[in-house]
Amino acid sequence: MTTTVTTTDNTTFTVTMDGRLDTAASQQCLEDLKTVLEIPGANITVDCTDLEYISSSGLRIFLTLYKSTFATKGSLRVTNLNPDVRNIFNITGFSKRFGIE
Amino acid sequence: MKGKFINKQLGNVSAKVSAFVIIVVFIVSSVTTLIVTSQTYDKALHITHAKANESMKYVAMILDAKLNLVEMTTDAITKYRFDRNKSKANDFMKEVLEACPEIDRVSIMFNENYFPGKGREYAPTMLRSDTGYVTLNAIDYGFTYLGTDASWLHSSKGERYWCDFYLSSSNKTPMVAFSAPIYDNDDQIIGVLVSGINLLWLRDFLDSNKPAPDCRITAITEQGHYIYPPDSVMLDIVKHMADHLKTHMQSDDVPEQIDNMFVHHILIDKTKWKLLIAYPYESVIAKPKQMATRFFVINIIALALLFVLLVVGIYLIIRPFTNKIRTVTERNTAIEKDLTLASALQSNMLPKKVNSTTAVNEIEVNAVLQPAKIVGGDLYDYFMVNDSLFMCIGDVSGKGVPASLFMMIVHTMFRDIAQYQDNPAAIVQHMNDLLAPKNKDNMFCTLFVAVLDVVTGKFRYCNAGHNPPILIHKNGQTEYMEAGENAAIGIFDDETYEQKELQFHTGDAIYLYTDGVTEAENNSHELYGEKQLLATLSANSGNGLAECINAVKNQVSAFVHGAEQSDDITMLMVKYLQIPDALRLTNDVAEVPRMNLWIEAVLKENDISPDKLFNVQLAVEEAVANVMNYAYPEQTGMPITITASQCDGSLRFVIEDNGVEFDPTKQSNPDLETDPMETDLGGMGIYLIKQLMGEVAYQRIDDKNILTLTLKK
Predict the structure, then answer these.
(1) Pairing of strands B569-576, B509-513
(2) For the segment B9-39, what is each residue's pLDDT rounded down to a tens digit?
(3) For chain A, is the Cβ count within 10 Å smaller at the N or the C terminus?
(4) Type and span of the H or E element at B388
């Protein structure tokens, strides 16, 4: 899978996830997000249009993003989840916490 | 180095040739020598026998002549009548001696009291002496004859008689005498005339007429007296021949052979004497033997010289060719080295193993290429790109180096083009477009290219003039694939290639081959043939591909039965396997994609809706992630086995590991509700599993963690 981070002003970030965020892919994904996580008060939008699959290790990445933005008064939005991934977000209670669109 | 080596080789060759010539000459000359020697022996014997016979006969003749003369003289003189008053004994005797010089002494033994004044016995005797004749009365010297002397006893009764040999009383000379009666005018016998001859000459004569120096000679009288005394060897022979001598009253023409001695035996008729002459076999053959030995030695020396001359001569003759041979040898060595490198290059081009990490062992591939020469014109290849197995097999026209070069081009092209093109017809088309226009030498290659989608079993192929591969179904049934009508590549630059498609089912296999298999020829020019091939493939359909290929290979080699391989033999087999019921992983996150592919295949195999794929993959992945994190926290390379099975209509996955005891079902659910900032999502995995699958059960058996997930219907 690939994780792409784009920004225009260094406070608003768009993270695009593409492919399967499984146990094997999560470590690289976390690595790719390091720059965003280091910026306090970042406003992050995760575009999940092409996110096919997520495992608990992937959820852990979303939790990390959540904790990071919550602690530094930033924001986290998750958009365009496909039904399967959305279902996981629902049954794990992630949906209620994140701004899911 | 090489030059020295060749010189040494040349030396060896000339030595070998020379040795051969010498051995032949030696054998021929030895046989000739043997034959000649044997003939020489025979001849020598023959000559010696003849010579001995001749000299003995000569002696006998001379002796006979002398004795005859004595007889004749004596007879002539005794024709005269003796008148007691007028005749004088001395005149008679003198007449005898004068008439016959052979006679040495003559005596007349008169009847008892014939001359009253001369006593009872009167035997006047006349001897030759240096000055003339000596006359004496033998009686004065102790001689007595009445009733005792054999000559007297025989001749006084009218007989002509040769007496036995005797030694003269005066000087012990060997003598023999002839006696005849003397008559008076009244035809009354008045006495006996005895003419004696000295036999000393006979000894000398025999000695001087010896046919060979080491001859033994003897002369024996009828009574067994020796005129010529024998030596010990001759004495033995005489003893040995005693019976023969007694009974054989004639000369022998052929010599008797007694203990390696040849013995000639001559009879003197008048006196009944026997002359014996003997000589050893050894002395007869001595000369030829010596000659043969000398010849043999000279022969050996000559042959040794000849050998040296031959070695040097041959070496010098073939030496000028050395450079040529050296150049050719070096060139050959270089070519051989190049060919070996080329052969290695070719075999290195062949694929070793399919990268199976993406394929979940769903295919098995095996191949063999057996070139007829050191480099071949056959090729095969296979490799995975994503989920597709690319494969090809081809046969370049012709053989040897040109074919192998063309083959390398074809092979490389296929690899290149297949990197960006997954349509078999397009690959072949592209290859032909590149090859055909520039192909001035009219080389071409029959080629079969196929792409198997390992996930779906879709098999697309394009056959460019190659013999159609054989499809082997799971039940052992075989069929040829539809060949199509495409030309081999490299021939027509305007050829368009079409492709065909098949659906593989699990257990199906394909057998790709080149005609080196079916057209393998034995010494009777019979072909292995397709019928045999199909039967063998069918019989081996239940076995592994390696066994199947080996079976064909062994059968072909048994069929040709040692005949030289005329064409490259290439076989490539691909089997589309059933999804394995169990998947073995190691505790490495990189194994996850392979696991997901397997799960996908398992669901498909079990006719489970693709909608469930996401959930099942996630549940199994969470279980495996737990094992990796908690059962094997430290180690790497540890085994995890996932088994899929149908149970009461439900699909069940059992995940087993040998790690530390870890029961995920005992974990509490993560509390995201109350405190999202504090949770680390521990227990999220098992929570998801429980949510997505129907049942989760944990067991600890034999130091194994066993987690069973059952999918809800």
Answers:
(1) antiparallel
(2) 777 878 888 889 889 988 998 898 889 888 8
(3) C
(4) strand B388-396
| B38-to-B35, B211, B285, B299 alpha-carbon distances in Å | 5, 22, 10, 17
* pLDDT per residue of chain A (101 residues) written in tens, 0 to 9: 899 999 888 889 999 999 999 888 888 999 999 888 888 888 999 999 999 999 888 988 988 888 888 888 888 889 999 998 998 888 888 888 777 77
Shortest Cα distance, chain A CAs vs residue B585, angstroms: 13
Separation in Å, CA of B582 to nearest CA in chain A: 21
The answer to whether the beta carbons of residues B489 and B428 sit under 8 Å apart is yes
Q: Note the pLDDT of residue B1.
A: 44
Cα distance between residue B401 and residue B303, in whole Å: 52
Find the CB nearest A92 among B596, B621, B672.
B672
- Closest alpha carbon to B175 in B101, B231, B139, B227: B227
CB B240 within 8 A of CB B255: no
B618 and A66 in contact by Cβ < 8 A? Answer: no
Question: Please, are residues B342 and B402 in contact by the beta-carbon 8 Å criterion?
Answer: no
- The answer to whether B566 and B502 are in contact (CB under 8 A) is no
Length of chain B: 713
pTM above 0.80, yes or no: no
Instruction: Give me the DSSP letters along B130-162.
Output: SSSEEEEEGGGGT---TTT-HHHHHHTTT--EE
Which residues of chain A neighbour B589 with C-beta distances below 8 Å?
23-24, 27
Q: How far apart, in whole angstroms, are the C-alpha atoms of residue B460 and residue B482?
A: 12
- Please identify which residue in the block is written with the tokens 């976390």: A30
Report which DSSP code applies to B86. Answer: T
Residue B618 to residue A97, Cβ atoms within 8 A: no
**Helix residue spans in B276-386 (DSSP H):** 281-318, 322-349
Give yes or no for a contact between B179 and B163, defined as CB atoms under 8 angstroms apart.
Answer: yes
Tokens 């993270």 label which residue? Answer: A15
pLDDT per residue as tens digits for the range B298-318: 989 999 999 899 888 888 888
What pLDDT does B271 receive? 82
- With beta carbons under 8 A apart, name residues in chain B contacting A23: 589, 592, 621, 624-625, 628
Q: For residues A39 and A43, what is the distance between their CA atoms, to the nearest angstrom?
A: 10
Contacts with A58 from chain B: Cβ below 8 Å: none
CA distance B357 to B580: 14
Query: What's chain B's Rg over C-alpha atoms?
Result: 64
Q: Which two tokens stand for residue B49?
A: 């026998």
Orientation of helix B613-626 relative to helix A56-71, angle to 10°: 80
Which residues lie closer than 8 Å to B318 by C-beta, 6 or more apart?
Answer: B10, B13, B14
Most A CBs within 10 A among B588, B596, B626, B672, hence the mutation to make, goes to B672
**Given the structure tokens 């006893």, which residue do they identify?**
B153
CA A61 to chain centre: 7
Mutate to test the interface with A, among B586, B591, B614 (most CBs of A within 10 A): B614
Residues of B within 8 A of A88 (CB-CB) are 618, 688
Average the pLDDT over B156-174 and give the result: 84
Q: Is the dihedral of CA B184, B185, B187, B193 positive or negative?
A: positive
Structure tokens at B64: 């006979």
| Phi, psi for residue B121 in degrees, rounded to 5 | -115, 130
Please give the helix or strand (H or E) that residue B9 lies within, else none.
helix B2-78
With contacts defined as CB-CB under 8 Å, which chain A residues touch B676?
63, 66-67, 70, 97
Q: In this structure, what token pair is assigned to residue B56?
A: 């003995």
Helix (H, G, I), strand (E, B) or coil at B194: strand
Pairing assessment for the beta strands B458-464 and B500-503 based on DSSP bridges: antiparallel
Specify whether the CB–CB gap between A3 and A44 falls below 8 A: no
Q: Report the alpha-carbon distance of residue B109 to residue B621 in Å, rounded.
A: 166
